[in-house]
Design goal:
globular; STM4215-like; 5-stranded mixed β-sheet; 7-stranded antiparallel β-sheet
């Protein structure tokens, strides 16, 4: 049986947490050990993060369920000689950014001079000729001339009227407009940070520090049918 809309959203955020790496511009590499709803993490897996899906509130209107699901993220890292509070603030900033900052960009190309992308282009580096912005091609639609990319860092935004190529690939063209940011999944209306901070103040004998952050994700389903919107 297909997954519920709620499960698809949770799975999308689990995939997003895997991008929590210094290579993607974050302070820590928690994405290498991203877990779901576990209480214990071995220190050999640190730094790590855990996603805890929590209760949701639902109201019904016009045949739809309007859902507000709470998601809790916990992050743990080893003490590395830095002030523990500094590490905690880095972890908290990372958690807020990776859960709420739209991670993907959609590039829309002008018809003139457009070269269709091919299956072999997926996973290759997309580069803007003017800005030098880069990202990884996630998907494409040659009929609408739209590409979805994962930028290499938050500053990679791609300009309008910019020649774009794929390193070692086939597709290319000139953007018709500035890139549009999109959420982790189109299944949600929004996600906002609601509360968070240090899990506790580290003691002298502690070797790790931890933080938590909670988020509210809004989405809809058909009333009585959690599998459809």
């Amino acid at each position: 049986m297909a997954d519920t809309i709620r499960e698809q959203i949770i799975a999308a955020f689990m995939t997003r947490l895997e991008d929590w790496t210094t290579a993607r511009g974050f302070n820590h590499d928690c994405g290498g050990s991203a877990f779901r709803a576990v209480k214990y993490i071995d220190e050999s897996a640190l730094p790590a993060c855990v996603l805890h899906p929590q209760a949701e509130e639902v109201t019904q209107q016009y045949g739809q369920n309007h859902c507000e699901m709470m998601l809790r993220v916990e992050a743990v890292a080893e003490l590395s000689g830095a002030n523990p509070s500094v590490i905690q603030e880095q972890l908290l900033g990372d958690a807020i950014t990776i859960m709420t900052s739209p991670p993907y960009l959609v590039l829309v190309f002008a018809a003139a001079g457009y070269t269709s992308a091919v299956a072999g282009d997926i996973g290759k580096t997309v580069t803007g000729g003017t800005t030098g912005d880069t990202g990884t091609l996630i998907s494409y639609d040659n009929d609408t001339r739209q590409w979805t990319i994962l930028p290499d860092n938050s500053g990679d935004e791609f300009d309008a009227i910019e020649a774009v190529t794929i390193t070692g690939g086939t597709g290319g063209g000139t953007t018709a407009q500035a890139a549009e940011q999109v959420h982790v999944t189109s299944l949600i209306e929004s996600i906002v940070y609601t509360t968070g901070g240090p899990a506790e103040t580290p003691k002298g004998e502690d070797t790790t520090v931890a933080v938590f952050a909670e988020f509210r994700a809004k989405y809809n389903t058909l009333a009585g049918n959690p599998y459809s919107q």
